[in-house]
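User: Please run a holo structure prediction.
Assistant: Happy to. Please share the sequence and the ligand.
User: Here you go; the ligand is 3-methyl-2-oxobutanoic acid.
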Amino acid sequence: MTKKLTVTSIQKAKNERPLTMITAYDALFAKLFDPIADMILVGDSLNMSFAGKPDTLSATLEQMIYHTQAVCQGAPNSFIIADMPFGTYTTNDKALENAIKVFQQSAADAVKIEGGEAKAAMITHLVDNGIAVCGHIGLLPQSVRSEGGYKVKGKDETQARQLIRDAQAIEKAGAFCIVIEGVKADVATKVAQDISVPLIGIGAGSGVDGQVLVFSDMLGLFEDFTPKFVKKYLDGATLVKDAVLHYKTEVESRAFPDEMHTY
Ligand code: KIV
C-alpha cells in the first residue's frame, strides 16, 4: 500500500514527477482508484455525469458532502479534494462556513474553488483557518452561463498574462496546487514555469505538473459529448451495454441462472 499524499508531498512532487488526479463520485469507483491515483477529486462535474444535468451549477453543498463521504469511505489512502459548488463561496465568510461543513462532515483533505486573482483573499481566509485549498483557473465550468459556453482560454496575450497573474495570486494566497482547465498548451506550460506549486492540467497540454480527467469521460462511460482533450482509455459504454444485453438474452432464454449460480 502506498502512503497517502499530503499537502507537503504534493507540493514536493513539482519538478520530481507528474501527478495523476482523477474524479470519483462514489465509494465503488473510489476504491478502484485508491491504490493508483495521487489525488481524487470529488468534482461538481458529478452534476452532469452522475445526475444527468446540463451543467455543474445546480450541484448543492449537501450533495457534494454526500458524495465526498462516499469517496472518502472507498479511498481511505487517497488525498481527496471536494469541489465547492456554485453559489457556496460568494463571500469569504460564506466560503469558510461552507468549507468547514465539508471538513466537519467528511474526511476531505482539501476543497477546490474556481477563480483566479479575484479569489486570492478568499483562499487566504480559508487557509488561515485550516482549510487546504486547490485553485482552479482557465476555463471555469461554473461560469458557463455567464460566459455563454465553455471557452478555451489563453488565446491571446492579454488572456495569457491574466492566467499568469491568476496563478501567482492564488499561489501567494496559499493554494497548495492549482487546476488549469481548457488553456492553450504553450500558455499553460508558461504558467507552470512561473509558479512553485503543482499545476494540474485538464485540456491544457503536457507541459504542466500533472493531469486530471473526469473518470466517466476517460472510461468512455459518458456518451453525451466528448471534449477534444478527453482520451478514452476504455470503451466503457459499449462494454456495459454489451454485458447488460448478454444478461437480458440469458434471462429471456433462461440460461441464467444456471446451476453454478443457484443455491
Ligand atoms: O468538477 C470537476 O470534475 C472538475 C474537473 C473538470 C477539474 O472541476
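The first strand starts at residue 19 and ends at 23.
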